[in-house]
Amino acid sequence: MEDPDHRPIASRAISPSLFAFSIFYGGMVCIAGVLGNKQVSLGPISRLGPLVGLPPLAVEAGIFAFLLLVVTSSAVAELHGQKIAGRLVLMGFVPLLVSMVLTLVVLVLPAAPEMDAGHLAAFNQMMGATPWIWAGGIVAYGLSQTLNVTIFSWLKGREGGKLLWFRAATASALSQIVDSILFISIAFGLSAVGWLMAGQMLAKVVLSVALVPPLIYALVAIGRRLDA
């Protein structure tokens, strides 16, 4: 099979699905931190909190981008193997760190005189973060995403190509627990460990089980279609 340039598809340096997923992955890495500035209610899921002695469940909105990161890296592991998925996670540090540096530069640059003071204050408040929050995000991203790929690939080695939904949901849930422990401990200190961490972990596990399985099937199907 040849592409429009009359080159064999096997000779391409990168497959279409890996190219597309890499771009998407980089975008989700950058937007996750911005979305995380808003806490969102989970509707009926929020009521699970009081049932186990916790406040109503809520999560930072960045979790939705992080779940898409989990789905994307798992789809890459399914289609291209653990080694390539690990490289994708590693390369994700590039847009993550560059976006942080650009944010710091923009915060330092003087605002235009005509910019509304209220808008400027809101921007600075939303985009500003303590060094511990930056550090927590970097460490939590690297370790949780690596753990997701590792668990997903290990389960694939045991189950073969079966139970894609189970492998994806299990890897996502466990990696999100680690993500919550690392980020909250580093960003807010041990004083934040307790109901906040428990609520975050419970919410992320529920979302992982509910959202990741259908998304992983969709993304793998898209990837196979792109590479066909």
Describe the SSE topology.
Blueprint: H1 16-35, E1 39-41, H2 48-51, E2 58-60, H3 62-80, H4 82-91, H5 93-108, H6 117-127, H7 131-159, H8 164-188, H9 195-227
Antiparallel strand pairs: 1-2
Describe this structure in words.
- The protein is mainly alpha-helical and 228 residues long.
- Helices cover 73% and strands 3% of the residues.
- The protein is built from nine helices and two strands.
- Strands 1-2 form a two-stranded antiparallel sheet.
- Helix 7 runs antiparallel to helix 8 and helix 8 crosses helix 9.
- The longest helix is centred in the C-terminal third of the chain and has 33 residues, at 195-227.
- The radius of gyration is 19 Å and the shape is globular.
- The model is unreliable at 1-5 (pLDDT under 50).
- Belongs to the vitamin uptake transporter (VUT/ECF) (TC 2.A.88) family. Q precursor transporter subfamily.
- Keywords: Cell inner membrane, Cell membrane, Membrane, Transmembrane, Transmembrane helix, Transport.
- It comes from Sphingomonas endophytica.
- It is a multi-pass membrane protein.
- Involved in the import of queuosine (Q) precursors, required for Q precursor salvage.
